[in-house]
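## retry 2 of 3
previous attempt timed out at serialization; input unchanged, resubmitting
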Amino acid sequence: MTAMPMTSLNISLPEALKAYVEGQVASGDWGTPSEYIRELIRQDKERRLASLEQSLLAAAKGRTIEVSLAEIRNNGLVTALRKRAQRR
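## retry succeeded, writing output
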């Protein structure tokens, strides 16, 4: 497996959150705070994708929503579907 190139992102945390992250790293499950934060971001991404998938499945089982190609091009598919669903 090829390693992905890395870049930096500096974040500011309140002391309590910094201590929490350091405690998680000290537990031995992660080698560095960066590894811990990357894992949290991956989990959030997976959770959001799963939520989107569930919403799309629920919509597919519901009433038909017609969205024009122009709406999709202008707004993106998800935004166009949300706008149409809100108009119901």
